[in-house]
Amino acid sequence: MQLIDEAQRLKNPSSVLYNVLKERFVMPRRLLMTGTPIQNNLTELWALMQFCMPSVFGTLEQFLSTFKEAGDTSSGCDAAKVKEQIKTLKYILGAFMLRRTKSKLIECGNLALPPLTEITVIAPLVALQKKVYMSILRKELPKLLAFSSGSSNQQSLQNIVMQLRKACSHPLPFSWYRA
Questions:
Q1: Which residues contact 120 (CB under 8 A, 6 or more apart)?
Q2: Where is the Helicase ATP-binding domain (predicted)?
Q3: What residues contact 61, with CB distance under 8 A and at least 6 apart?
Q4: Which of 10, 39, 85, 125 has most Cβ atoms within 10 angstroms of its Cβ?
């Protein structure tokens, strides 16, 4: 049996880790543990499920064609069809996933946590962070305007937001930016 913790590292089926574990360590059973099985898109979900049970989940193209509306929540899709595909996907995944939420564990008496304490500390951006942040906004302005008019997809917006978050964390990974 193959047990993999932090399985979110396997969300890219083209990664070296994914292929080495799948091809060189062939096991009759595979168990993945992750706190984020569905984080970004259906391709990542398929990669995890296909890693565990390739004969059940088939090719990426088959999976995406079956659940394409569930992965696209933009306004151009039929809301009823999207809802139905999400319901079907949850039903199928229910057979393969054990989802233990904090509320369920408290309900069973298996979790005793101290009360949550949150402290908000406002930390202003340093000059370089501000410059990188504004540079990203200027560079991505056409995409942001396209999204607001409904002609761009949600994934594009998520990518822009992720870049902005990275700039807030630390500006140095943006080697393309020269102050």
A1: none
A2: 1-55
A3: none
A4: 10
**Which pLDDT tens digits describe the chain residue by residue (179 residues)?**
888 888 888 888 899 998 898 888 888 888 888 887 776 688 888 998 888 888 888 899 988 888 877 766 665 667 788 888 888 888 888 888 887 777 777 777 777 667 778 899 888 998 888 998 999 999 988 888 887 777 777 778 888 899 899 888 887 777 666 55
Please give the structure tokens belonging to residue 24: 């060189």
Tokens standing for residue 161: 């937001």
For the domain with range 2-105, which CATH number is right: 3.30.720.200, 3.40.50.10810, 1.10.10.10, 3.40.47.10? 3.40.50.10810
Question: pTM value?
Answer: 0.55
Place of tokens 């995944």: 93
